[in-house]
Amino acid sequence: NGKYDESEAALKEYATMRPEDGRVSLEQSLLDYIDFLLKDSSRYEIETLPFNTKGSDWGPSLYGNKLVFVSTGDPEDSRDIKYNWDNLPFLDLFSVDIDEYGNYSKSEIFAKNLMTSYHEGPATFDVKAKRMYFNSNRSTKGGSRKDDYNNLQIFYADLENGQWQYKGEFKYNDPRYNMRHPSIDNTGNLLFFSSDMAGGKGGNDIYYCRKDESGEWGHPVNLEELNTEGEEVFPFIASDGVLYYSSNGRGGMGELDIYMALPDRGVYKSVENMGYPVNSPRDDFGLILDEVGMSGYFSSNRPGGKGFDDIYKVEILYIPVQIKGVVRDRINSFEIAGARISLLDENLDTVATAISKEDGEFLFPAYKQRNYRLVVTKQDYVSAEKDVSTYNKLPNEKIEVELYIEMDFDKLDQTDQLEPLSMELVDGSELQIIQIEHINYAYNSDKITPDAAFILDKVVEMVNQFNDLEIRVESHTDSKGGDEYNLKLSKLRASSAYKYLVSKGIEPTKIEYSGFGETQLLNHCDDEVDCTEEEHAINRRSMIKIVRRGKYKTSRTSRSMFYF
Question: Among 54, 164, 179, which residue's Cα sits nearest to residue 109?
Answer without folding.
Answer: 164
